[in-house]
TrEMBL record:
Domain named STAS: residues: 21-109
NCBIfam families: ant_ant_sig
Name of the protein described by the UniProt record: Anti-sigma factor antagonist
Classification lineage: Bacteria, Bacillati, Actinomycetota, Actinomycetes, Streptosporangiales
Any Pfam family the entry gives: STAS
Length: 109
């Protein structure tokens, strides 16, 4: 289940909007992707120009459902001229993003 966390280091005062941070642990798969999507929607509703960080450092597995939620987040944030930061991306998630050619849409740290 997504958890709130503190703003990414060095990012807390970048601009007028606060950073909204979600930390996800475990498997980001078809059974759990909906929970992350709901948490993303809740955070996006908090500001007109969202700044959202998703910590994926403790994600052990990500399937196409999980990846689709990350793509959803990127598109929704960009529609509102916001910023999406994927932080502490696990090796498995990084490899999936790169293999799918999504590193332009989902900027990796």
């Amino acid at each position: 289940m997504p958890q709130q966390a503190e703003a990414p280091p060095g990012r807390a005062s970048d601009g007028p909007e606060p950073w909204h941070v979600l930390r996800f642990r475990g498997e980001l798969d078809c059974a759990r992707a909906g929970g992350l999507r709901r948490a993303i929607d809740e955070k996006l509703a908090l500001s007109d120009r969202p700044r959202l960080a998703i910590d994926l450092g403790d994600v052990s597995f990500c399937d196409s459902y999980g990846l689709s939620v990350l793509v959803y987040a990127a598109k929704k944030v960009r529609e509102r001229d916001g910023t999406l930061l994927l932080s502490s991306v696990s090796r498995q998630v990084r490899m999936l993003i790169e293999r799918c050619g999504l590193q332009r849409l989902l900027t990796l740290p």
